Amino acid sequence: MTRVVRLADVEVPVAPLPTADVVRGAPAAGSVALATVGEAEVGVWRMTVGVARDVEVDEAFVVLAGRATIRLGDDESIDVSAGDLVTLRAGERTEWTVHEDLTKVYVA
């Protein structure tokens, strides 16, 4: 088991998102699982500039780089950038507007 992972060295390959999920632009995304803690997966996720919809899982994440606005349902938007800790609930419908390529480390 690897105890230390240099997040700056983790390469996260991205692929275009499904057309049905894309609102604007040509965003791509991808993730790399790094570890399991109990039942939770820990990994790194990346999305390029654009706007896309998603349905969330229970997750906490820390933004490592980039900027985005996440619209939660129809009534709340949050702006996130490097250093922010965010929690999402399973089943939440979100819309991600990525202003600068976003990289996050997640626990889900």
Structure description:
Residues 38-106 form the (S)-ureidoglycine aminohydrolase cupin domain. This is Cupin domain-containing protein. It holds the Pfam family Cupin_3. This protein is mostly beta strands. It has one domain: Jelly Rolls (Sandwich), CATH 2.60.120.10. Helices cover 0% and strands 63% of the residues. Strands 1, 2, 3, 4, 5, 6, 7, 8 and 9 form a 9-stranded antiparallel beta sheet that branches. It is globular, with a radius of gyration of 13 Å. The mean pLDDT is 96.
Q: Biggest sheet: strands, sense, closure?
A: 9 strands, antiparallel
H/E order of the elements? EEEEEEEEE
Can you give the mean pLDDT?
96
Unreliable runs? none
Number of helices: 0
Distance between the ends: 19 Å
How many domains? The number is 1
For this structure, what is the CATH homologous superfamily?
A: Jelly Rolls
Query: What level of helicity do the residues show?
Result: under 10%
General shape: globular
Using the 3D structure, state the CATH architecture.
Sandwich
Helix-strand category = mainly beta
Assigned CATH class:
Mainly Beta
- Beta percentage is over 45%
- CATH fold node name: Jelly Rolls
**How many E-type strands?**
9
**Rg (CA only):** 13 Å
